[in-house]
Amino acid sequence: METEGGEGPSRGQIYSQMAIGYSKRYRGKIQTIPKVPIRELGDFSIWYTPGVAAVSMEIAKNSDLSYEMTWKWNSAAIITDGTRVLGLGNIGPYGAMPVMEGKALIFKYLGGVDAVPIPINVHERDEIVRVVKALEPAFGGINLEDIESPKCFYLLEKLSNEMNIPVWHDDQLGTAGATLAGIFNALKLTGRTPEKSKVVFVGSGAANIATVKLFRAAGFDLKNIIMVDSKGILHPEREDIDQLMKNNPWKYELAIETNSERRRGGIPEAMEGADILIAASTPGPGTIKGEWISKMEKRAIVFALANPVPEIWPDEAKRHGAEIVATGRSDFPNQINNSLVFPGVFRGALDSRTRKINEPMIIEASMELARFAEEKGINPDYIIPTMQEWEVFPRVAAAIASKAVEEGLARIRLSKEDFYIHAKEIIGKNRELIEKLISLGYIEDIKR
Asked: For this structure, is 382 an active site residue?
């Protein structure tokens, strides 16, 4: 296990060796299996020709029937161009495929969603838009994944506005939703409110830019937010501000609207007097120093989200005054993981047939995650559910679906309780199916 001192065998190396070996053995992580009975070739007269022609004609007259008569109602496409894969950078669509397969597994296991990995050998942003829009007849939702910034902002905005199915970029929205959920409970424990909290964001990539925007929608004051990138604190007088306006208008907007003090400098100058630190930047340790945390307000909240090593080790952050610390890792308390968000979000989006996923819906999902943890009993080492608490996923689904109804975006209008029952049944059956296939030997088990 990797330790704070860096001693002992690396858990990451062990998992890497296992992943390579098992990938060669299984030759992929997903497959297509029938969901209708086939006992003889004559059955294809129903499922294929001649019977299928009648189904096609019905859908041709009313395309909404594709949700009732095909797999569209429960399907999502996982789209990537491979330009920002995990911490590996631009490894291309072929290299991205194993990651997208893994994402599809999470969709199925935690959300009951049939997701298909589609790495595309297309990189120009408007060409990507054309490709994704062309897939709309086949899928009920689109998950954009591992696409470089600032291209990812353009794609999410344009596709969300031009498609009639929900479009999600998990690197932005999933991370933002999980972060907000953790912050909601951290604020409760430390006696703070969004409106008056001073927040520092270290790292100004896709995740933190999306998180700042979601925080604004959740009641945080942009004037009390400071953002830091590799060149220092964002402010309107920076030498590169004109370049930002041209090349990254999303980051430029925040450079103008945040940091009302017009503070300058780097990370230590930004952190002085802050209530909350959210770092999604260069892996540590040492990216964030303990003495900088000691200059934050008392009962400081520190989210050090870099992987595989957080910007500062949790114990060091606490020694220097942090009351609550979260990371992106499962071997420390308070893991901020976008996998807590997207399976339930897509389950709810598909169940309600929402046309899009907006900020109020994401905030509602974050609040549901926070409520789940609060009902269990929050404390400094438990501010957000763990991945093992699978009961949270149908609750997130119901929260998203009912909010879509409230926002006037849903094509199916049910009560929150009905959405919850439906989501729980689907997710539960899919987990049972996987366990059954393993127990019967149709999926070969592995030794742990």
From this structure: no
Rounded CA gap, 369 and 106, in Å? 18
What stretches in the chain show pLDDT beneath 50? 1-8
Residue 24 among the catalytic residues: no
Domain boundaries, the chain: 1-30, 35-165, 174-327, 343-439
DSSP state of 16: H
Indicate the length of the chain as a whole number. 448
CA 424 to chain centre: 20
Catalytic-labelled residue, pool 15, 22, 26, 48: 48
- For 150-162, b where at least 16 C-beta lie within 10 A, e where not — what string? bbbbbbbebbbee
Catalytic residue among 72, 103, 108, 289: 103
Take residue 324 and report the two structure tokens written for it.
């609550």
The pLDDT value given to residue 308 = 85
Q: Is the pTM of this model over 0.85?
A: yes
What's the CATH fold of domain 174-327? Rossmann fold (3.40.50)
CATH T-level topology, domain 35-165: Rossmann fold (3.40.50)
Could you tell me which residues are beta bridge partners of residue 233?
228
Identify the CA nearest to 79 among candidates 105, 102, 97: 97
